[in-house]
Amino acid sequence: MKLFEFLHSRKGNLFIIITSAVLGVALAVCTAFLTLEGMESAKNAEDILYLSSDEASSSVLSSTVESDDSSSVDSQPQSESAPVIAEVGLVMSNPSKKSATVTVPSFTFVGSCDPEKDLKLGDTVIQTDENGAFTHTVELKVGANKFVFSHKGKKYTYTITYRYVIINAYYPSAGFNITSGTTFAATVNARAGSQNVTANFNGVTINLVRSPAGENMAEDEFCDFSGNFILPESGVSGRDLGVITYSATFAGITETFKSGKITCKDPLIAEVIADSAETFNGNTRDNDTRPTNNYLPKGTVDYVTDSFSMYDGGYKNNFLVLQSGRRIYSDMPITPGSSRVQVSKTYVGKLPDHNEINVASVTSDLRRTYLTLDVMWKAPFTLDMKPQSYTNPAKQEYTVSNVTIQYIEINFCYATVFNGSIAFADNPLFSHAEVFVQNGNYTARLHLKKQGAFYGWDSRYNSAGQLVFEFLHPLKATATDTNEYGADLTGMKILVDAGHGGIDPGAAGYNSVKESERNLNLAYKIKAELEKTGATVIMTRTGDATLYSPDRVRAFRNAKVDFCVSVHHDSSTSTSANGFGSYYTTPFSQPAAKLIYNNTINTGLYDGGKRNLIGWHHFYMSRMSFCPTVLTENGYMRGSIDSPLITNETANIQKAQAIVRGITQYFMSVSS
Q1: pLDDT over 90 (residue 302)
Q2: Alpha-carbon distance 185 to 172, whole Å?
Q3: Model confidence over 551-566: pLDDT tens digits?
Q4: Distances from the Cα of 436 to the Cαs of 174, 224, 242, 447, 468, in angstroms?
């Protein structure tokens, strides 16, 4: 009989039963043997294990331990439920490590220990509470301070280093590439009363001179000390020049710090060849627009210290890092399509070792104030509106709650000479100006007559090579009863920018409706409403034309307008998305964006949903600084709530009227 048939017969079944029984008996005998052996082993284990704090994490446990008084612990058979109790030792929470550095002359130890045993610092008993918790403050001497705690026969050593700050900061701090024959400033921010403030680099030591701004400071306050290094024009290219060593002494205490490694290379110059070049922080590797940065005009030149590329949203951006501390695009993608624009070019050359500024004129007309300067060469500058607070710049969030600008600060890079005065005679914007040295360069600070009363600026080099700054005046609107807005904007020029167009249709709506069409439709309605107020309206496009981003901005700059509103509609993959958006980039555009938002929401056209917002964004058009600029997102093209209204002509007239009401209210508020 085959095995398969045998196992399924009655005899086969009996065979299986007998075999299973034999195997079961054998298994039981083995189990009993192992159990007896395990019970014997258990007699050699401790029922309760006492572990020191260092031993608690060990995987090897001794079968017997001793208590602090060396009395033995009776062995007990270990049961499965016996607890494992760690010995209470010293646990320090501050400092969290065995060493720490502080900049104040005292330190507080915080921790816990066995409340039944003494905790000592040296010979001093530290007071603890009933749970063993303690805090203990010690005075520190300058330098390393060693503290030895003892508890339950063990010693614990902590080293607290008290750094009495002499040097608060220094620049340059990071390593960089520098070109032969150039001059760069070394700056130390140290206590005002410091002595022997020096910087040593490439075998040369220079004494750093205290900034005039620190002359009236108390000795223990901090101020800048600066000096210049000049590299030879030959013999250093391609060399590793080492580090800059900074040193300062105060009250007999000396601090020394070192920069990163400095290398020298052939001098490479970057020149802005586009109409302007947006600047970015030189010590970052991002593509983030910041309202604290500025644009440099065509013709600006500076040395290149580094270059790199990065991708942002799938687009490649190529950057040049400038010696002055900012960076610009080498080339960048433009929209629509996949074209690129060259922002700057590079070449080997030599720039002057410093710059000289001379005030040529300060003039004004109805629309603008012009500050014209003679310059030795077209060096970069930084311009910022101060003081102005933002929500969270560290996270690229520059939302403004209130415009608090009090002055415009222009720092002229490499400028060691400044001749002439900046005088404003009956100027609508500025009350006065001051010129001073800051971080080794001359700075012009233009004070506004009224906080927040700033409306835009631009810069250029004229045909004579002079640097010209243009500051927009606030044109006055007058009250009237001749139109529904109660405002006469005669003489004002307003740009209405219809987003997308041509080969760039924008977001898609239902029934083949394109965003570019709806943008233009609403833009025309805004134009018609603005013209009721007497304003002159300029359109970036009047038909379904393709406008590349540089061309759109060039039209904006050349139009010399007093205000710009950019018209868009939003997109989302969710049909439940809805709402209106009013966006600004420059802080002085925030009041207008807020008024446009409030008037639009008050129409009731949007349901007050989740996406209604006024906020900061770095949209390409809105980041221009020529005048107040607001970009509007007038509902979601495929939103179930917004879409019907986007193609509703009556609703679009209401939207246009709300936007114009916000614009007229803005100009009336400026006039008041």
Answers
A1: yes
A2: 8
A3: 999 999 999 999 999 9
A4: 26, 13, 32, 14, 20
